Amino acid sequence: MINGHVDAGKLVKIMLSWVGTPFGAFVFGFVLYIILSYPFRLIKNVKTQDLTIKVATWIFGAYASYSLGANNVANVTGALVGRLLNIQLLALIGGLSIAFGILTFSRRVMLTVGKSIVELDYFSSLVVVLGSALTVWIYALIGVPVSSSQAIVGAVIGAGFARGTRIGNTKMVMRVVYGWVGTPIISGLMCVTMLGIISVFL
């Protein structure tokens, strides 16, 4: 918002990104699986394959964490910038809060992504992490906050399609879609409701 008015250009940009995130991640997951699976299959030694996966896990995991920090902390704390705290402190609070959320309530979401949509093997999982990280990072470069959850789901489905694996749980995918559509709507309604209640007492 600028001087109490909505910046229509930025709003449209965010809405397009909201739609494009899972589809972009789907493309990355699909294409990366095809590209990376070829050199990986050339590795015939099982121990070398295991070592490759372990090293790639560290590298891709670190990159995914970097992308998450570059983009998703803004989702948590961006609205407070310049109002209550400075950017550095807000980034620290947001990062610590995300870490705390990972340690407490991430298990069910991880199981949904890793098993309930498409059954992934180790290689597919690496492709998914890289594909979703690239998607989130690209949006971070252009300064648009996006959902890493939607990116990871899109990448999971994309890698699954490239692998020839059918979606294992269509109902779960529909629940994810409902969440994708419903989250901004419900959040908006909650904000309007809370502001209405607060305005009564102020």
From TrEMBL:
It is a multi-pass membrane protein. GO terms for cellular component: membrane. Keywords: Membrane, Transmembrane, Transmembrane helix, Transport. Pfam families: PHO4. The keyword Transmembrane helix applies. InterPro entries: Phos_transporter. This is Phosphate transporter. GO terms for biological process: phosphate ion transmembrane transport. It comes from the Bacteria. It comes from Kosmotoga olearia (strain ATCC BAA-1733 / DSM 21960 / TBF 19.5.1). Its main location: membrane. One of its GO terms (molecular function) is phosphate transmembrane transporter activity. The lineage of its organism: Bacteria, Thermotogati, Thermotogota, Thermotogae, Kosmotogales. The chain crosses the membrane at residues 15-39, 51-69, 89-110, 122-142, 148-165, 177-201. It is found in: Membrane.
